[in-house]
Amino acid sequence: MHPPDVLCLTLDGDATGIAAQLVAQGWAVSHARNVQAAQRMQAHGDFPVALLVAGAEPALTHAAVESLLDTGPGTEWVALCEPQALQEPAFRDLVLDSFFDHQLMPADGPELSIRLRHARERALLHRLRRDERHGHDALGMVGQGLVIARLRAAIRKVASTEAPVLIGGESGSGKELAARAIHQCSQRAAGPFVVVNCGAIAPTLIHSELFGHERGAFTGASSERRGLIEAAHGGTLFLDEIGDLPLDLQTNLLRFLQEKTIARVGAVRHVKVDARVVAASHVDLAEAVAVGRFREDLFYRLNVLSIEVQPLRKRMEDVPVLAQHFFDRCATAGRSRARGFSRQSFEAMQAHTWPGNVRELFNRVQRALVMTERRLISPDDLGLPTVQGAMGVALNVARTAAERDVICHTLHRMSHNVTHAARELGVSRMTLYRLMDKHGIVLDELPRGASAAGWGARGGMAPIRTREDMGGLGAVR
Known about the structure:
The protein has about 475 residues and is of the alpha/beta class. About 45% of the residues lie in helices and about 15% in strands. Helix 1 crosses helix 5 (about 110-135), helix 13 (about 320-335) packs across helix 15 and helix 17 packs across helix 18 (about 420-425).
């Protein structure tokens, strides 16, 4: 078995003796004498744990530490320093904010090895958690519940066609993310994905922005310019908030959908454009048609295939997964004291109704990372009230999670055979289907070879019928 690797960065003194002690304890030591050398080693090697050897006055800045952490985000650092070094406020803050542990000189080989092994185990746990979360992120959408599984299934179906798609859903629910997933799953994935926010372009410019213009078409048009529709040739045109499009441009857009040609402003000829249209709106377009704000013929031309992105309050099981995903994303972008969420934070997030949907959750996590002075983010950091008497809720959540994990583990052991798994669990096949429906376990979403832990909304190897395929089985209670 290959000895575990440790990156040893020595800023002061001779590390020969320390390296010899570590080798004696079973470590393979890679030695660097400055930050730049350590970064090069991190870029070309895999170091779950690293050791910083510093003297009484270590010449190390926050910027240098941040560069090391950014180069090797999966590495846990341990500091070995003289006692006087911790009297310097700047270095003391570095150790507290960015290091897993520290030890004072003179070096004690066995004790130092124990600290390094603890740090290494911690780093490996972080990696396992990251790998598991990648399994929850399919089609660019994070989540493991039944609602998000159905959305992924719908996206895969509509992506296989060339027909227009109309996406509905509240603001901040992830309509653009769904549109990107449709594009990425389609045969147009190699082409451009052009986003047009119909409500954000000035009315005087929107015609030229969408359709382009010829040279001299109006004052200031010194050269010809392709519009956004032309820019989507060979790919997908995403018209966000299409309900805000002026009525006169709705007519031009309808002509494009019918004929697949456009005319630039000031042009006498038409240009053929091959682009699939995906539109989205947070308002009810059928209601907008009824009051005369949206063309009925354009509505029916767009509404060939429709997808509804559910608000976050209807998929609360995904809130912890999404919060942790945003935490990881934002924590990588900048240094923060926070290392995760407190139990009270998760309880507060589960109790919140999220009127701003996923966008609100992202903003609250981002703000908490900037503002918190704690190691674990609190409800107050998120701007949420603490849930009173939430211990019963937490116990219920734990029981639900345990039930889900047992079902997933049994399906895994039984090679994802539902009949055999039901017999092993001591329930009927129909009861197991109902439990799978309750926990959002979709067998055809589960990758082969996954571990049972944290499966959530994923299930087995062979494709299994969902509730819709089984004629509404989920309604039979």
